[in-house]
Amino acid sequence: MIRVGIVGATGYAGAELVRLLLGHKEAKIVWYGSRSYVDQKYADIYQNMFQLVEDICLDDNMEAMAEQVDVIFTATPQGLCASLVNDNILHKVKIIDLSADFRIKDVAVYEKWYGIRHKSPQYIEEAVYGLCELNREQVKRARLIANPGCYPTCSFLSVYPLVKEGLIDPDTIIIDAKSGTSGAGRGAKVDNLFCEVNENIKAYGVAGHRHTPEIEEQLGRAAGKPVLISFTPHLVPMQRGILVTAYASLKKDVSYEEVKAVYDRYYEKEYFVRVLKKDVCPQTRWVEGSNFVDVNFKIDQRTRRIIMMGAMDNLVKGAAGQAVQNMNLMFGLNETQGLQMAPVFP
Fold first, then answer.
1. What is the Cα–Cα distance from 22 to 335, expressed in whole angstroms?
2. How many other β-carbons are positioned within 10 Å of the β-carbon of residue 234?
3. How far apart are CA 120 and CA 324, in angstroms?
4. Are 344 and 289 in contact (CB under 8 A)?
5. What CATH number matches the domain at 151-314, 3.40.50.1010, 3.10.450.710, 3.30.200.20, 3.30.360.10?
6. CATH dotted code for 2-126
7. Alpha helices in 179-290 (DSSP H)
8. Which mean pLDDT values do the consecutive 10-residue runs of the chain (346 residues) have?
9. Which one of the listed residues 81, 150, 154, 281 is annotated catalytic?
10. Known catalytic residue at 150
11. Measuring CA to CA, which residue among 345, 326, 311, 289 is closest to residue 150?
């Protein structure tokens, strides 16, 4: 049985980790960490856990946690994991960080986009970018995982096969993305109040969203050269879900069958990536509550561009589900363990 500790168990991503791990046959949560709710019963904070979780919330003392668990999930704001991790902890446990602290390999880029000083840059090179579909073998051997961001996961999986195969010009990529309000976290913010969000849709982080360098770095690795993209996220009045619509110029004329064959070749063995049938556009409602990513494409012959689309649940494959997927690989389990739930509808 894998003993689990969660730092940030009372945030949205942390709570989703709790939900998923309660149904995991090979894992048991022994430390519910939360700075805001120390000594309070977890089920008093999340009533859906009434009679399911009897534990009280503890602090975020990773040194003490490392003595009691096999893996630590850090579902925390940027900067916290980097400020807590050290050699002693990493010698004892594996860490899966859901923040951005170890995703970007250039510390100067991280500090520029996130506006904070990195407190443990010595671990950046070691950290494995935990996109299982890309780095599965590295994840299996890792002791520190940088769990990918929600927008980067959906964006990358939607366009990766065509970038890798050189069918599109990566410098022409434009990504229009939309997310539900849970992506902003559980903290109280005026912009996330019901009256601010309801009956409204807005762009934010225009030409400066901090997930941009993460997407560019991963696409650059696929393309074999630096890549610059235009990325614009939007907030939509729903709780969960991400929808990505990406555009790029084709390098040559291609048929639907040729492009479909590329997607099928890259994802035919990937349980959590579903390539949809012709002319079926991904929708957030068909992936909600699951670890699936639905992808598809449409060729615009008139403009010689291609539209690549993806949909997923930002709290599952975009955060907690992907983290559990990484944990499974790190401990030699079936990758789908605890994650084979069907999407919820309605």
1. 17
2. 15
3. 24
4. yes
5. 3.30.360.10
6. 3.40.50.720
7. 194-197, 212-223, 256-267
8. 98 98 98 96 98 97 97 96 97 98 97 97 98 98 98 98 98 97 88 92 96 98 97 97 98 97 98 98 98 98 97 98 98 98 96
9. 150
10. yes
11. 311
